Amino acid sequence: MKYVVFVGDMKVGTHEDLLVTHALGSCLGLMVHDPVRKVGGLLHAMLPLSSINPAKARANPFMFVDTGVPLLFKTIYGMGGQKQRLVVKAAGCGRPLGNDEMFKIGERNYTVLKKLLWKNNVLLESQEVGGTASRTVHFDVSTGRVSITSGGKTTDM
To answer: What is the b/e burial string over 67-90, where b = at least 16 CB atoms within 10 angstroms of the residue's CB?
Structure first.
């Protein structure tokens, strides 16, 4: 089954599922996969810290990196995923408005992600972050294959 992950959303799937998200600019796209259990999830978080709007974070924790990332991992664990087997990949965190972007949201999203992963002894296997181009992510949960389409080109990560 194909599931589209919108901005501020997360979807999980099993061996028959394809998770897709579009228009990753400054947003974080995080893919987590357990290759043995064949479960995975995709988060499309928009902002780094939930402290800017706690009410919104309670209503939609997937909007924020600091609340969405832990929930993604907890959901994968609830599906039988095990931390030591997880393959973690990141995309997005760019500068869609160029180097003059005042708030540096993409850079801050990536910094919060790296801190969360570091504190929990989790490493990124691969990443395609930064730059000014928007990205579309296709994540095949059965194989763990992640492909990124950006600027008319598709690459595997």
So the answer is: bbbeebbebbeebebeeeebbbbb
Packed helices 105-119 and 65-78: angle between N→C axes, nearest 10 degrees: 40
Q: What is the CATH classification number for the domain harbouring 59?
A: 3.30.1330.200
> Domain limits at 98?
2-156
Place of tokens 């924790």: 61
Kind and range of the H or E run holding 127:
strand 126-129
CB 31, CB 72: distance < 8 Å: no
Domain count, the chain: 1
Q: Is beta strand 28-34 parallel, antiparallel or unpaired with respect to 18-24?
A: unpaired
Q: Tell me the torsion sign for CA atoms 104, 107, 108, 109.
A: positive
Measure the CA–CA gap between 115 and 112, rounded to whole angstroms: 5
Has this prediction a pTM greater than 0.90? yes
The overall average pLDDT reported for the chain is 96
19, two tokens: 């998770």
Pairing of strands 145-150, 135-140: antiparallel
Residue 83 has what DSSP assignment? G
